[in-house]
Amino acid sequence: MDDFASDTDSDYTSYWRDWFISSRGNEYFCEIDEDYLTDRFNLTGLNTEVQYYQYALDLVTDVFDMEVDDEMREQIEKAARHLYGLVHARYIVTTRGLGKMMEKYKQGTFGKCPRVICESQPLLPMGTSDTPSVSTCKLYCPKCEDIYNPKSSRHNSIDGAYFGTSFHNILFQVYPALLPPKTQRRYEPRIYGFRVHASAALMRWQEERREEMKQRLRGRGMETGFEGEEEEIEEADEEGEGVGGDDQIDDMFEGAAAVQ
């Protein structure tokens, strides 16, 4: 019996990273290269953030051979998962790490955008803070540029610091061809085919503000990023759908209230 337990522990410690990556709920993580984990420069400062740091590092790098009781092993295992997550945030902004995450992104490992107009655009994991235990992992859509909660509770409980606030932006800087074209399409509330008055007025006001912003950007010789909707704005101007601003929208709302 003791020999069997010893063999099991040996196998477990020999393949810790394989076990971690293949565990359910850890699909967002990529495997960190061993040479990256064994380079102490890449681990700078983490010894003060991780309890049982050396034991945890030994477990992650498959050299842990110390016999400990179940309670201590559980604490070391928890520390190892935390250490791996913190190193992971650093690794995925390296050339090798970006390449691995790019493949996961192209395969749709992180899910699709729930926004209908984004047409199942693949998502990327991100954190809203680089500090551990502040916020959980979110999913970023590069098409609508919004963030969403993961569907699975397992993914929703991952610390956002394990991906960081910069990874998704760096990925598209390195691989600009992966950046999808932005969409300016929006859902328009309608009743029997007619746009709802208050929403339509607000949308027309937003379109005017967007046009003003584009004119300012062009004046500075900068890309507007909204070229795809030029024809729509011109058609709206021809139909006379523009409104003057906040005061006119407020007047519309007040008029509607007076009628009621």
Automatic annotation (TrEMBL):
<dbReference type="GO" id="GO:0005956">
    <property type="term" value="C:protein kinase CK2 complex"/>
</dbReference>
<dbReference type="Pfam" id="PF01214">
    <property type="entry name" value="CK_II_beta"/>
</dbReference>
<feature type="region of interest" description="Disordered">
    <location>
        <begin position="215"/>
        <end position="260"/>
    </location>
</feature>
<dbReference type="InterPro" id="IPR016149">
    <property type="entry name" value="Casein_kin_II_reg-sub_N"/>
</dbReference>
<dbReference type="GO" id="GO:0034456">
    <property type="term" value="C:UTP-C complex"/>
</dbReference>
<comment type="similarity">
    <text>Belongs to the casein kinase 2 subunit beta family.</text>
</comment>
<comment type="function">
    <text>Regulatory subunit of casein kinase II/CK2. As part of the kinase complex regulates the basal catalytic activity of the alpha subunit a constitutively active serine/threonine-protein kinase that phosphorylates a large number of substrates containing acidic residues C-terminal to the phosphorylated serine or threonine.</text>
</comment>
<dbReference type="GO" id="GO:0006359">
    <property type="term" value="P:regulation of transcription by RNA polymerase III"/>
</dbReference>
<feature type="compositionally biased region" description="Acidic residues">
    <location>
        <begin position="226"/>
        <end position="241"/>
    </location>
</feature>
<comment type="subunit">
    <text>Tetramer of two alpha and two beta subunits.</text>
</comment>
<dbReference type="GO" id="GO:0019887">
    <property type="term" value="F:protein kinase regulator activity"/>
</dbReference>
<comment type="subunit">
    <text>Tetramer composed of two alpha chains, one beta chain and one beta' chain.</text>
</comment>
<protein>
    <recommendedName>
        <fullName>Casein kinase II subunit beta</fullName>
    </recommendedName>
</protein>
<dbReference type="InterPro" id="IPR000704">
    <property type="entry name" value="Casein_kinase_II_reg-sub"/>
</dbReference>
<dbReference type="InterPro" id="IPR035991">
    <property type="entry name" value="Casein_kinase_II_beta-like"/>
</dbReference>
<dbReference type="GO" id="GO:0005737">
    <property type="term" value="C:cytoplasm"/>
</dbReference>
